[in-house]
Automatic annotation (TrEMBL):
GO terms for molecular function: protein-lysine N-methyltransferase activity. It holds the Pfam family SET. This is SET domain-containing protein. Residues 24-257 form the SET domain. PANTHER family: SET DOMAIN-CONTAINING PROTEIN 4 (PTHR13271:SF151), UNCHARACTERIZED PUTATIVE METHYLTRANSFERASE (PTHR13271). It comes from Terrapene triunguis.
Length: 410
C-alpha cells in the first residue's frame, strides 16, 4: 500500500496523483457516506492549488464514523470487558477490537477502514534490534522502553484474550499473537486523535483519550502549520479547522504537536526534513561533568541556531574560575562574566559538537555498510539514515556558529 495523504481539491480535481479511484478508497468513502460523512474539500492522493481559507472547517467527521471505547463497549466484546477483573485499560480494549475485527475480515463492518490501514509500521518497537542500536541517544533508550512496554502489555493481556475464545474458531493464541498486538498498538499510537472520554468502571484508571478517525487519519504532519482539532459537542462531529491557508492540489497538513525528530520517530515512525523543532541531544557521556547541574539543565541541545541557551549557560557555569563562583546568578541572567569564561565555554561546546559530528558520521558509515549486507533491513536503515543526516546538518550548522562566536570573543 502506498502511503496516502489528503490534498485540497476545492472545485475540480485535476491532480494526476489522485488516489480516490483506488478501490479501497472508493469503499472507504462509500462506508463513510453511509455514516453521514460526505467530503467535498479533500481527496486521498499519493504525494511526496483554490485556497481553503484559514479558519474554515476542513473535515467534520460524524461521531458514527469514530472508533472509540464506546464503540467497543456496544459491540459483542462489551460484555466480556464489563465482566473482566481487574479491568483492562482503554488502550488494550482498542487493540483487542482492532485485532478481532481484522481477523473477522469480510464479516467486519469496519472492513473498509481496516483495508486502508498500513500493514506494517516503522515505530521503534517494529525495528530490528540491529537498527535500534544505530539510533542516537536518548531515542535508543526510549526505543528499548517502547519495546518493553508493548511486550509487557502483551504478557499481561494474555489471560483476557483467553476469555474471548468463544468468539473464535481458531485458538486465541493464534489470533491475538504478539505481532497482531504490535500492529494494533502502532495503529493506535500513530493514528488516533485526542478525544477525552469520561472514566468508566469497566476500564482501568489509564486515561481514555483515543479515537480512531477514518479518513481524517490520512492527514500528514507538518511542523509549520496550525490547525485546531476537537470533538464539537454541538454538531457531534470531530472537526479540524485550518489556521493557515491551503491551496488547491496541495497536500493538506495538520500538526501532530511541537515534536522534534526523535519524538516523531518514536511516536509516529517517521522523520521530518528541516524540522525546526529538532535538536541533537548531548549524551550523558559527553555531559558527565555536567551531572551536578543536570537536574536543572535538562534537554541540552544543539539546534539550527547553534548550541541552546541552556547548554551554553550550563557550560558557562562549569567554566567559572574559582574567583568567579559568586557570579553564578549573573550567568543565569545571561550576563557575560569574563572573556576567559566565554572562550572556555565555547571551546567545550565546540568539542562536544565535534564529538557528536564524529559519532554521527561513524554511524552513517555503518549504515552504508549495513545497507549492502542487510538488504532486508533497507527501509529501516533508510529511516535511521534520514534522522542521522538531519542531525549532521544541525551539528555542522552549530559548529559553524560556534566558530563565529569564538572568533568574535578572541
Ligand atoms: C495519521 S497517519 C497519516 C496518513 C498516512 N500517510 C497514511 O498513509 O495512512 C500518520 C502516519 O503518517 C506518516 N506521516 C505523517 N506525516 C508525515 C510526514 N510529514 N512525512 C512522512 N511521513 C508522515 C507516518 O508514517 C505516520 O505514522
Amino acid at each position: 500500500r502506498v502511503a496516502a495523504v489528503l490534498v485540497c481539491i476545492r472545485k475540480k480535481n485535476r491532480s494526476t496523483l489522485n488516489q480516490s479511484h483506488i478501490l479501497e478508497y472508493i469503499q472507504l468513502r462509500k462506508w463513510l457516506k453511509e455514516r453521514g460523512f460526505d467530503d467535498r474539500n479533500l481527496r486521498p492522493a499519493q504525494f511526496s492549488g483554490n485556497t481553503l481559507l484559514a479558519g474554515e472547517v476542513i473535515i467534520s467527521l460524524p461521531e458514527k464514523c469514530l472508533l472509540t471505547t464506546g464503540t467497543i463497549l456496544s459491540s459483542y466484546l462489551g460484555e466480556n470487558i464489563a465482566k473482566w477483573k481487574p479491568p483492562i485499560s482503554p488502550l488494550i480494549a482498542l487493540c483487542t477490537f482492532l485485532i478481532a475485527e481484522k481477523y473477522a475480515g469480510e464479516q467486519s463492518v469496519w472492513k473498509p477502514y481496516l483495508d486502508v490501514l498500513p500493514k506494517t509500521y516503522t515505530c521503534p518497537v517494529c525495528l530490528d534490534q540491529e537498527v535500534v542500536r544505530l539510533l542516537p541517544e536518548p531515542l535508543r533508550r526510549k526505543a528499548q522502553e517502547q519495546r518493553t512496554v508493548v511486550q509487557e502489555l502483551y504478557t499481561s493481556s494474555k489471560s483476557f484474550f483467553s476469555s474471548l475464545q468463544s468468539w473464535f474458531t481458531e485458538t486465541v493464541e493464534t489470533v491475538f499473537n504478539y505481532d497482531a498486538l504490535q500492529w494494533a498498538w502502532c495503529t493506535i499510537n500513530t493514528r488516533t486523535v485526542y478525544m477525552k472520554h469520561s472514566q468508566r468502571e469497566c476500564f482501568s484508571r489509564e486515561p481514555d483519550v483515543y479515537a480512531l478517525a477514518p479518513y481524517l487519519d490520512l492527514l500528514n504532519h507538518s511542523p509549520n502549520v496550525q490547525v485546531k482539532a476537537a470533538f464539537n459537542e454541538q454538531t457531534r462531529c470531530y472537526e479540524i479547522r485550518t489556521e493557515s491557508h491551503c491551496r488547491r492540489h496541495e497536500e493538506l497538513f495538520i500538526c501532530y504537536g511541537p515534536h522534534d525528530n526523535q519524538r516523531l520517530l518514536l511516536e509516529y515512525g517517521f522523520v521530518a526534513i528541516n524540522n525546526p523543532q529538532s535538536g541533537v541531544y548531548v549524551s550523558a557521556a559527553h555531559a558527565f561533568y555536567l551531572l551536578v547541574i543536570f537536574d536543572t539543565f535538562r534537554n541540552l541541545t544543539f539546534g539550527r541556531d547553534g548550541p541552546s541557551w541552556r547548554l551554553l549557560t550550563a557550560l558557562k557555569l562549569l567554566c567559572l574560575g574559582t574567583d568567579e563562583f559568586t557570579y553564578w546568578k549573573k550567568v543565569l541572567l545571561g550576563d557575560i562574566i569574563s572573556a576567559r569564561n566565554e572562550e572556555r565555554s565555547l571551546n567545550i561546546a565546540a568539542k562536544i559538537c565535534f564529538s557528536l559530528i564524529e559519532e554521527t558520521q561513524h554511524v552513517l558509515h555503518q549504515i552504508s555498510q549495513m545497507k549492502k549486507d542487510k538488504v532486508n533491513l533497507e527501509n529501516q536503515l533508510a529511516l535511521v539514515e534520514v534522522l542521522r543526516l538531519e542531525d549532521l546538518t544541525i551539528l555542522q550548522t552549530s559548529a559553524e556558529i560556534l566558530y563565529n562566536l569564538h572568533t568574535a570573543v578572541t
